Amino acid sequence: MIPSHAPFSPRPPWLGGTLQTLRALRWPFAARLTPGHRLWLPLADGDALAAMLHLPPLVLEPARPWRCWCMG
User: Fold this and answer.
1) 3-state SS, residue 60
2) Helix, strand, coil proportions of the chain in percent (round to 5)?
3) What per-residue confidence (pLDDT) applies to 46?
4) What gap in Å lies between CA 58 and CA 19, rounded to an integer?
């Protein structure tokens, strides 16, 4: 079965991966992430995968009430 996705067509100004790389090198921006925890995930072949876990900041009182939808 072939997925029915729309064909990809790059649009200006990013006509290819090279221009995206140049933009990232010329105008880098830092990700706005909370401090993270370094994780090393072991793989089946004995190697390890490095990962970073970023948790949301602790909020004592939520700004909005929690909502839960149960579909059944």
Assistant:
1) coil
2) 15, 20, 65
3) 92
4) 38
SS3 26: helix
The identity of residue 51, as a single letter, is A
Closest by CA position to 50, among listed 41, 59, 37, 63: 41
Write down how long the chain is.
Answer: 72
Give the pLDDT score at 34. 72
Angle at 36 between CA 33 and CA 41, to 5 degrees: 125
CB within 8 Å of 16: residues ≥ 6 apart? 10
Q: What is the pLDDT of residues 16-64, one digit of tens each?
A: 667 777 777 887 777 777 788 899 999 999 999 999 888 877 766 766 7
pTM of the full structure: 0.37
